[in-house]
Amino acid sequence: MSLEARTPLEGYEEYDPQDMQARIDSFTRSLKRRRTVRDFSTKAVDRKIIERAIEAAGTAPSGANHQPWHFVVIEDPTRRTALRRAAESEEQSFYEGKAGSEWLEALAPLGTDASKPFLENAPVVIAVFAQKRGGVTVGQDMKNYYINESCGIACGFMLAALHEAGLVTLTHTPNPMRFLNKLCERPDTEKAYMLIVAGHPDSDATVPEHALIKKSLSDISDWI
């Protein structure tokens, strides 16, 4: 394929203004129901649902279309236990002062702490890795660009897809996360980016009232 090769746009659907408004209203209402949850049911999730969510994440735009991400679904109980222990060890240092007083003060209304039982108990835990090198096809060894931005968008797509499937999610970023490379058998050219926990909410799941505070449209946008 030449560098200048082009192909007609396919799959685009244009809607009349009324349908456009209805579709965006429905999508926004749905996302407004999305909540970060820490209390998960042990109810299993069909593997096909997670595979489709990963596929959705893989459609995200990326620097030079290199798609600098890799998703590892951690199912093995032994690895889950090791994951929880390693993450809680890092989190213990975080909450004992590594984070700094301002950060801990910001987290206080959410009631989070070093305990992460969901890493063992939730039905789905996905480790997202950002690839420093790669390319548009598997096996290439080129520098990747806009890695953090690309992976962030992909994770957003995945969260939206999992929500659309009727699951609740949690994003977790233990710092540092270097232990995940060994645990997930990923190369040094990749950097652990995020853990995405998903499943059905426990019957007595709660969310902090603080998390329900969302800035208004006028707070987060300007038209100039």
Offer a quick outline of the entry.
By secondary structure, this protein is α+β, with helices and mostly antiparallel strands.
Task: Describe what this molecule looks like in 3D.
The chain has 224 residues and is of the alpha+beta class. It has a single domain (37-203), classed as NADH Oxidase (3-Layer(aba) Sandwich), CATH 3.40.109. It is built from 8 helices and 6 strands, in the order ααβαααβββαβαβα. A hairpin with a 7-residue loop joins strand 3 (133-134) and strand 4 (142-143). Helix 2 runs antiparallel to helix 6 (147-164).
Largest sheet: 4 strands, antiparallel
Structural class comes to: alpha+beta
- Please give the order of strands in the largest beta sheet: 1-2-6-5
Uncertain ranges: none
CATH names the topology as NADH Oxidase
Helix share, percent: 25-40%
Mean pLDDT: 95
Rg, Å, rounded: 19 Å
Shape: globular
Q: What's the domain count?
A: 1
Instruction: Bin the strand percentage.
Output: 5-15%
CATH architecture: 3-Layer(aba) Sandwich
Name of the level-1 CATH class:
Alpha Beta
CATH superfamily membership: NADH Oxidase
SSE ordering: HHEHHHEEEHEHEH
Oligomer: single chain
Discrete helix count: 8
